[in-house]
Fold:
Amino acid sequence: MGTKKSGRLYIIGAGFAGQALANEIKTKAIFGELVAFLDDDPDTIGRKIDGIPVLGPVRDVARLLRMNPADEAIIALPGASKEYLNEIYGILKRAGFMRIRILPGMSQSIEGDAHFIQTRSIDPQDLLGRTPVTVNLKQSLAYLRGKRVLVTGAGGSIGSELCRQLLSGGVSRLYLFGHGENSIYQIDRELKVLQEEGVGEKTTLIPIIGDLKDREYMDFILARLKADVIFHAAAYKHVPMMEENAVAAVENNFFGTDNLINAARHNGVKRFVLITTDKAVDPVSVYGASKYLCERLVLEAAAKAAAEKAPGASPNYMVVRFGNVLGSRGSIMPLFQKQIEKGGPVTITHPEMRRYFMTIPEACSLVLKAGGVGESGKLYLLDMGEPVRIRDMAEQMIRFYGFEPEEDIKIEYIGLRPGERLDEDLWGRDETPLDTEFPRIRRVERTRPATADPEDLLEKLRPVVRFDPARPGQYRDAAILREILEDAIPSLLPLRLAQGTAKEIVQGY
Structure:
């Protein structure tokens, strides 16, 4: 993570975050020579902070510096707007800095807990989209202090960021659950290194390799973990791939979530938060349908818990829905980056395709906050701002890497893939969003009862997902699965009619 000691370091921002980094750099004396702070605050310019001069304004000073290849700028402005970060990045690039790192605008940094290990090379997601909302993470996580918390899909983009932020919550035990050995190893190792470097509070980390699809195992493991809270982030999520593997999508997402809820209910889990997607809104894909059914399962579990009126506080089951996040694995940003690095073309499905985007840290901070302030049986929606045209994002990324769209890197349109639609909605035709007292967290209420009965669908789909000797012909039959889903979820039917008959669709499954 460190730079060569021959390099000169300049920290952009002389606030608490910059000063925390400067102190660590000077103490360890392994990252390079700290030369100066660069800042735009007239009250700070000209001073020395612990012997380090503060130079500025950034625009004027940066162009006077004489860079060498080992010199590095570290942007320590965790509360800065995207517009200001773009401006600073442009100034540093024009000044000749080839190595630019950034301290991401994570909530725990805003609270005065900045460490060099949290810095990383700047990338497009730091400059694209809107300015994230600031969440007082330690305050938001107070409800988790001393609790045992399990995160499913802990090795994924959302799950791993939830775990990073949970380090600041005073959690007694953090269970990192996933079925991918490598991804769980990586997040476990990363969190331990963060702890070694002073990030967050003391928390016992426990990696667990397991499979949501194994109902008996989920009950077995939760009986032993005695988790108080579950954040359920695990899912198969790649839309076109799940169209080609429809049974696997339903088995993992829908049946896996049912197994997890069943185990949570049997073993006294007090709080269950499902992370879901805008693709569950009036779904047109198998993935979207599977997540819609997961939403219904959680909300029905809340209703059952309320009806049982067991002694003590009833378990809290809730849903948090949001759209796309910038930079998640398998999303368009890493794809565009690879396409740009090989000289193009950058491929886009349609010139007018739009999506809602937010950063992964912001989404996770809001999920953690909603998990504490939300009511059982409610579906919460993260305010995603305005949708972004994918072509505009591609052009911004091309320019980030120093090229011009079309002139240097071509853009090609490849058409909508199976299960995709031009625009995504954050709430459905039968839903109404309502404001809450918490910034960028809304509550969604249904205007009419849901037609899909998840318990009934589990029974109908069981012989497709699990081998039944009495009905061997149904096992892994994607055509039967689609017909069952389409009967229960009307929004799926128009897609089938547009693409052809069910028999045509499942060729190649």
